[in-house]
Amino acid sequence: MIDFPALLRCILFALPALVAAGGAARGDSLGSFLPMAIPGFGVAPGVSARSRLHSGDFPVPLAPLASAGLRVFPRLAVDAGLDTAPGAGQGITAMGMVRPEVRLADPELGLAGFANAELDRYARDPAANANRVTAALGLALPFGPDRITLGAAHVNTAQTALGLAANGGAAPLDVTTDAGRIGLRLGFGAFDATARVRFGRDRVAAGGAGPAGFGSRSITRGQVALETADGAPLRELLLLRAGTTRYAGALPGSGFADSSSLAVLAGGVTGARALWRLRVVGGAERIRYAEGGPASGIAVVGDLALQWTPDPLIAVDLDLSRRAGADGGFGVPGSILTTERLGLAESYARDLLFTVDVAARQGRVSGHAATEADVTAGALWRLSRAVSFRPSASFALRHDLPGSAPHEARLMLSLVWTP
């Protein structure tokens, strides 16, 4: 019989190691900003090699609450390092971060959540200093073979016009998102039907030459999906998605205007326990813009994800995506955002994990074709159940990306305490 509480502790403890030191630059879903899987938001695709955790490696929940079924896991990370270009035109500087965090889960209720704070300080670039708070809570309620999912999140991140800042570094846009998720999954024998509604509000604060273009935007999305039932080597998907985007404080001539969209996509996904895991989803999205926006039209959109896991300690991930409209970052509306990412992970021993992450993004910003590419190499060295070191090195190249330096290197060392 599966020990679900032990499995849950394993997931909560291992997930930060799997995406490893520094984090990858993935801006295509809100789940990519969250450090753990939350019902309603899921988690971004990423390296998923599993460490060989023994019972002595599991974090220990706070005893008074664990006895009531609620498992609470505190965590503290302290980071120090060097950044060659935290802002456009700025020179090399020492930097430090303090990140306290609390994670909670109740496997009986299907509850998971977390709250964390991040204090960033740059010795020679005070403009890049930041205090951030992120929190999320989700609930998955099963009733027979069916399930209702509820989720809410408050996320504060540094972003460029193409998405999440490379390697979690400083960026010209400070974006705060409040979001909610409602989902219903129903089983009909040969196939499963899923209906989801997601809504959120982005507030953008620009620093320096940041390409804000607007003050805030509200996004509402609805999706209905049909998927062949689990058990087949390849599950077929059919998705219908519609949504609206409303802007407030848009600058004249910026190209940001209210819009509505309708998309139809189809594809397939292999089983979660296969040696090779493949997800292919593609289709067309029709976007209509209000006056002042770009020309309305139809865009080809989709995702391709491939993962190879030859054994429990090695994983190779490849993710490609093509997005449009409000899903295309903070660049000019009507342009296409394409992303490519390759992740590698290998665990040579029970207490040592190495990762490499390569990512690239392309889109149009301020009338120009902008690109960003970055590579991050990191390691996790677990000294004990409670203490681990996480060194990382990263390098980013950018072209015509307003508010960001054309190249940036970061060296970081993190000490993580999980009592």
Task: Describe this protein's structure.
This protein is mainly beta. The chain has a single domain, classed as Porin (Beta Barrel), CATH 2.40.160. 5% of the residues lie in helices and 59% in strands. It contains two helices and 19 strands. It has an 18-stranded antiparallel β-barrel. Strand 7 and strand 8 form a beta hairpin. The two termini are 28 Å apart.
Concise description?
This protein has one domain: Porin (Beta Barrel). It has two helices and 19 strands. The chain has helices spanning 4-19, 63-66; strands at residues 71-83, 93-106, 111-122, 130-143, 146-160, 163-164, 173-187, 191-206, 216-228, 234-248, 259-270, 276-289, 297-311, 314-323, 337-349, 352-365, 368-382, 387-399, 407-417.
Q: Which short descriptors sum up this protein?
A:
18-stranded antiparallel barrel, mainly beta, 419 residues, 2 helices, 19 strands, disordered N terminus
Q: List unreliable stretches of 5+ residues.
A: 1-28, 44-55
The count of domains is 1
Give the oligomer, counting copies of the same chain as homo and different chains as hetero: single chain
End-to-end separation: 28 Å
